[in-house]
Design a protein that fits this description.
260 residues, alpha+beta, four-stranded antiparallel sheet, two-stranded antiparallel sheet, 10 helices, 36% helix, 15% strand, RNase_H2_suB_wHTH, Rnh202_N, nucleus, Ribonuclease H2 subunit B
Length: 260
């Protein structure tokens, strides 16, 4: 099913299995490659990878839109069905099939009504930020078991522990913000600072963080600092094809929730 990517807003493929949400990504097959399958040769060498994704990342941009927050109001409360109701983007309704969907919503929402059948939800900024910070903390605690993150700080192997700690935190932060819109990524990034890394960069000519990050498949600015809000996210093959297609008549994510 097609759902808006929580970071870019572009249509991306997801699936639900046993009440859990999975992201589907196709490995680029722009080169010449094929597969031997039994006694046949499959000329299309592309592969689809299916990986689990925390549904809350998907919920945040949707909840941000449907609450209709203004300067005068914190916005409206909505039922689970109302949050994912969209005549123009019918796949969103499938998110109600997730196991413990209300439990996920409660992690980042203010809730009204005690009855499970009458509960209404509204995104709450403070709870959302607390949840995002917790995600960063979890990645930091499990850092050594995630190869892509370990590779991203390879340049710090001979450096003092205080610098390595900042590098670990920075790398974990980047991974979390890669699943966020520009607004939430900027807001979360503002919660962290890396003074020792900045001092190191200002007085040495060490290889940039980007050199090691790119080897691990991560995105960095050339100066090793967090990716700016204006930097476009790396797109999958399917997203690049969509980007090249005509956008005439296409509507933004917010329009999917507009009233008739």
């Amino acid at each position: 099913m097609l759902l808006p990517n929580p970071s870019s807003g572009l249509p991306s493929r997801y699936t639900i299995q046993d009440g859990k949400l999975f992201e589907m990504q196709m490995i680029d097959s722009e080169g010449l490659r094929s597969w031997f399958v039994g006694n046949t040769i499959q000329s299309d060498g592309s592969l689809f990878l299916i990986t689990p994704i925390d549904p809350v990342f998907m919920f945040i941009p949707i909840l941000d839109i449907v609450r209709k927050k203004t300067k005068e109001s914190e916005g409206r409360f909505m039922t689970v069905e109302g949050i994912f109701e969209s005549d123009q983007y019918s796949s969103l309704r499938r998110l109600t099939d997730l196991a413990k969907v209300q439990t996920y919503l409660e992690l980042v929402c203010e809730v009204r009504n005690a009855s499970s059948t009458d509960k209404t939800f509204r995104l709450e900024d403070e709870k959302t930020m607390a949840w995002l910070r917790k995600k960063v903390e979890i990645l930091i605690s499990q850092f050594a078991s995630i190869p892509v993150l370990v590779d991203s700080i390879a340049y710090t192997e001979s450096l003092p522990e205080n610098i390595r700690k900042e590098a670990i935190m920075q790398s974990a932060l980047r991974l979390v913000t890669s699943y966020l819109s520009d607004h939430w990524a900027t807001t979360l990034s503002a919660e962290y600072s890396f003074p020792e890394l900045e001092k190191l960069e200002s007085r040495t000519q060490l290889p940039s963080v980007a050199d090691f990050g790119k080897r691990a498949g991560m995105e960095f600015e050339e100066d090793g600092k967090p990716v700016k809000d204006t930097k476009k996210p790396k797109l999958s093959v399917g997203q690049r094809k969509l980007a090249k297609a005509s956008t005439a008549g296409m509507k933004p994510l917010s329009s999917f929730f507009a009233k008739k």
